[in-house]
Design a protein that fits this description.
The protein is mostly beta strands. Strands 2, 4, 5, 6, 9, 10 and 11 form a seven-stranded mixed β-sheet that branches. It is globular and about 40 Å long.
């Protein structure tokens, strides 16, 4: 299974961005897909995850800013990020687990840079 992220870029505070995690060599429907991020000088942070059944987990739902969802027809998982803040600046990458959102993630992509700056 190969994962490729896209959709990153430079945006201003308050703007939205949608990241895509596209799968090839296998169906993402069989995997829990997690989004992670790593900012310079910081530890990796879990952002959101969606189970193979389509249930979102770890979403930053307390702020209502990030939403994760699947499009099985496109073999992709998306991370919709709204009202972005400078502290959201990081490399975002997706990873796939054949077990669950709490399991080990066997596959990961290379990441896409998100920069939030005025």
């Amino acid at each position: 299974l190969q994962l490729v992220e896209s959709g990153g870029g430079l945006v201003r505070p308050g703007e939205p961005l949608r990241l895509t995690c596209a799968g090839s060599g296998g169906s993402l429907r069989h995997y829990a897909i997690g989004w992670f991020r790593r900012a310079p000088g910081k530890e990796r942070e879990e952002v959101s995850c969606i189970t193979a059944r389509g249930e979102p987990m770890w979403a930053q739902s307390e702020t209502g800013r990030f939403t994760i969802f699947r499009d099985s027809a496109r073999n992709s998982v998306y991370l919709q990020m709204n009202n972005l803040k400078p502290e959201d600046t990081a490399v975002y990458y997706c990873a796939a687990s054949s077990v669950a959102c709490i399991g080990d993630f066997e596959f990961r992509g290379q990441g896409t840079q998100v920069t939030v700056s005025s």
